[in-house]
Amino acid sequence: MAIEIEKKYRIDKKKLVEMTARLAELGATFTDETFEENYLHRGGVLDERNAVLRLRKTNGRTTFTYKEKVANTGEFKQQIEFETEVADVEATEHIIEKLGYRLSLVYEKHRKSWHLDNVEVVLDELPFGYYMEIEGDIEDIRRAEKILGAENFEPESRGYPRLTAKFGRDVNGVMEARFEKSTTAA
Fold first, then answer.
1. For residue 8, what pLDDT is reported?
2. What CATH number is given to the structural domain containing 18?
3. Fewer CB within 10 Å of terminal CB in the chain, N or C?
């Protein structure tokens, strides 16, 4: 069973810039920059297990993920996570629908990712704010937090789905947090 352990922090634009510079100073390996569209489905046994199915579309690639909450020790979020790449998005969406699950949330995210020692550090921009996540085992997360100077950052215990439910808007029964599209002609 795959268990994901992470700690999330609410940051502002200034801290986002500072953390980007700090990661470079520390020699962290920049791994990726993506724009994501995340589609979360709920219902039936998923609700009973406090779980979701997620389709994440990024840069011409789609992943399908099952996430189920397990222990949450306050500052650290832990969940079961299984993920696979999807070859046919439409077919996968039909399978999810035919199994009786409904689309409940959609959120967009700009993400930059680094590897620092034994952890992954990501800096995220969502329509409702900026966040940093450190993923790894608990001791490695604590060590990275100290190295980065993030011990006093405001922890965020809620995941992006809960934040979307709070800060997003209802679009035909689906909570959405999307970036405003520019209507200015070039």
1. 96
2. 2.40.320.10
3. C
